[in-house]
Amino acid sequence: xxxLVESGGGxxxxxxxxxxxxxxxxxxxxxxxxxxxxQAPGKERELVATIGSDGRTKYGDPVKGRFIISRxxxxxxxxxxxxxxxxxxxAVYYCSADHRIFPTRWGQxxxxxxxx
Length: 116
What we know:
The chain has no helices and eleven strands. The protein is an all-beta fold.
């Protein structure tokens, strides 16, 4: 059974930090590209960050310089360190696992709310 389970979301003040985690099971984690996407109410889902099986990273423009994606293959887990959070970062954050010949897998999301 394939599962992606996000954790670490919550309420934080502007300028604060959170670290999201996504732990996977049922996939060969080390050969998958992992990603974080987010969706705010009434908005399209947008790329936050991706990290390839080779460790190469990519970030969406709104989070560049503030967020860091990383992975721990021994734990089958991908992380998203979010710093200097802004109200516009408020969204449901989804974890993804992608392989070029397998369907993309998604977690159910974790809510991040940035508000004073």
